[in-house]
Specification:
Number of strands: 6
CATH class: Alpha Beta
Order of helices and strands: HHHEHEHHEEHEHEHH
Strand order of the largest sheet: 3-2-5-6
CATH architecture: 3-Layer(aba) Sandwich
Helix content: 40-55%
Number of helices: 10
Radius of gyration: 18 Å
Distance between the termini: 65 Å
Length: about 250
């Protein structure tokens, strides 16, 4: 492979990833992380895939979507997912979210909506898989691995993203001392070692495999209870629904 082509692609990728970041706190954090040796490996690996015309998700300008959507000073809740959806036109850069025009809601997100609908006494309504309204309220939707090869779930799990998200969690813990972390499933709960126990809400993952245990819990109520205890405004989880409460 031509080293100059690879170097140019790395620089384009770097610029595309940082371009959407307006928040100076996140921009400084991300710029610093991207200079680290582990992140240089991530950039080189992704650039090599681009040069070889291999597809990965999300688009390079959306890899840091969680950081673009929620300024650090607004972060109140952190939800940690696994990795982006590996099929076309689904991954948005926000954990669990899908584009607003997608009516085929993935099973895990559907179960999240069912849990919230039960809590809010809402039923038989359409919910948008676009979770921007949560991000705007201070919900930081972070995947453990920020990219995925096409049709290969967890195919980028050895790229170095785990180090990046470990560092991100520790940065939030330090700079947003009242933020609540919702850790759904074993993979997310590995991050608990970086978080004070009083700031953690844990439950089973909402995937079909663990849905029965997930539905035994009330994680979204529990998050709001923790926010109130910390003196913070609660999250309007029902902002994704296109209807109101039953009369």
């Amino acid at each position: 492979m031509d080293d100059q082509v690879l170097a140019t692609t790395v620089m384009q990728l770097y610029n595309n990833m940082l371009f959407p970041i307006d928040d100076p706190d996140w921009f400084t954090f991300l710029s610093n992380e991207m200079q680290q040796p582990y992140f240089e490996k991530i950039l080189n690996s992704l650039a090599q895939e681009l040069v070889e015309d291999k597809k990965f998700y999300p688009n390079s300008t959306e890899i840091f979507k969680a950081f673009a959507a929620t300024p650090l000073s607004k972060v109140k809740v952190v939800i940690i997912g696994q990795d982006p959806y590996p099929t076309p036109d689904k991954a948005t850069g926000l954990a669990f979210a899908v584009p607003p025009n997608l009516h085929d809601i993935p099973a895990s997100l559907s179960n999240i909506f069912k849990s919230i609908g039960r809590d809010e006494e809402i039923s038989n309504v359409f919910a948008t898989g676009d979770l921007t309204s949560w991000a705007e309220q201070g919900v930081f939707l972070l995947n453990t691995h920020l990219t995925v090869p096409a049709n290969n779930s967890l195919g980028h799990s050895s790229l170095g993203w785990k180090t990046f998200t470990d560092n991100t969690v520790q940065f939030i813990v330090k700079n947003r001392p009242k933020a609540v972390f919702l850790l759904m499933g074993n993979n997310a709960q590995i991050k608990s070692k970086f978080i004070p126990p009083s700031r953690i809400i844990q439950c089973a993952h909402p995937s079909p495999h663990s849905a029965p245990k997930f539905f035994e819990s009330t994680p979204f109520i529990d998050v709001n209870t923790a926010l109130m205890a910390a003196g913070l405004d609660t999250i309007r989880w029902n902002s994704v629904f296109q209807a109101t409460h039953h009369a």
